[in-house]
Amino acid sequence: MHDQTLAIHAGYEKDAMGTMAVPIYQTTAYEFRDTEHAANLFALKELGNIYTRLMNPTSDVFEKRFAALEGGEAAIATASGMAAIFYAIANVAEAGDNIIVAKQVYGGTTTLTGHTLKRFGIKTHYFNVNNPSEIEALIDEKTKIIIFESITNPSIDVADFEAIVDIAKKHNIMTCVDNTVATPILCKPFEYGVDIVVHSTSKYTTGQGLALGGILVERKGLVDMIKGNARYSHFNEPDDSYHGLVYSDLPLPLFTLRVRLSLMRDLGATPAPFNSWLHIQGLETLPLRMKQHSSSALTIAEFLEAHPKVSKVNYPGLKSSSHYTLAQKYFKNGMASGLLSFEVADKETAQKIADSTDIFAVVVNIGDSKSIITHPASTTHQQLSENELIEAGVPAGLVRLSVGLEDTQDLIDDLTKALG
Q: Where in the chain is the domain with CATH 3.40.640.10?
């Protein structure tokens, strides 16, 4: 089936009531048939609902539907996008290990990998996403995962999936891409060999800024890459917390299963059933919305490129963009989502522009139906040093736009007034 059909129907089998809309199973716990049934569930002899910290029927529909859209094997929903990224790392790395992360990523990913993970004994090496050849020199026997974004936020670079994946496969290392900005409607990283995809579903998935959430999806056949792989011995050795369970022996999607049975069990960054339901509603219109977001963003990028006060526009849909060729290769019909950024003379000018808009709201979010304007250097990336900001593609005069679903001409008129 095509995406627009999957977004509406995948993962949901109507119950005895025949409800057309997915029900909200707003419950924390589930009654077992008897004590033997309960024991079998906890021992993984049977599969079923145990407790909403681990699984929930509403979240299950969301997970199956999202996995179908990405073309993945299985998914697990989380309480936020940052939880999904953390789980992807914690599922493979431990104290003494290292990970490799693109310099051009969301500020929260930079602080997580560069600061918080240090306290867990996990070291992070960084590479320029525009120069994947840097990765090879960073790899050693303790490297567990390579992380990057399909469209970087807020520098709006496009990663060369195949170049990064080729290096990872050479060394038998997992790759993980944050596909939040592109969404599975515009880009399907599994088609280019990526192993894990994560999203902040708080963004385009919900589409109206209604709910926090994240999701982690694993590719089909990932078990074959993990089984017997010395880098991921904990998947191939007995798990004492499950009476000697060996994940790689199970005929199941083992990456997301271990996240559920170990990390979600112990850390509990679980989505509320109502939030999963809101995300399901968002998925139903995601294919239509991404077309409009992309179309409006391209028109606005062309307007900004011609404006005398704008020195640079970052949007891979522009033919003048250095990322145009990659966008045409990796994104559906070359559509490049609704996120763009542009540079002006300095920080003061950038902030004045943001403060002068009427329709664009000063908000640190993206992917909303309402248009948003942000000065990243003083907000989402404030924790970075001046040098780190430059390396992340976030100069002081950078303004980020999340183009919503308002009339495009109204948005251009708003920016015209703000630019002065």
A: 3-274
pLDDT of residue 250: 87
Count CA within 13 A, CB hemisphere, residue 321. Answer: 26
Residue where the block lists tokens 């090496």: 125
Tokens 């697990």, residue located? 76
Domain 287-419 top-level CATH class: alpha beta
Query: Distance between CA 6 and CA 3 in Å, rounded?
Result: 5
Considering the entire predicted model, what is its pTM? 0.95
Round the average pLDDT of the chain to a whole number and report it. 96
Is the model's pLDDT at 216 over the cut of 90?
Answer: yes
What pLDDT, on a 0 to 100 scale, did the predictor assign at position 390? 79
State the number of CA atoms in the 13 A half-sphere of 35 facing the CB. Answer: 0
Delimiting residues of CATH 3.90.1150.10 domain(s) in the chain? 287-419
- Average of pLDDT values for 106-112? 92
Please determine, for residue 114, whether its predicted confidence score (pLDDT) is greater than 80: yes
Task: Residue 15: count other Cβ atoms within 10 Å of its Cβ.
Answer: 10
Q: Is the pLDDT reported for residue 385 higher than 80? A: no
Average pLDDT over residues 55-66: 98
Q: Please state which CATH class domain 3-274 belongs to.
A: alpha beta
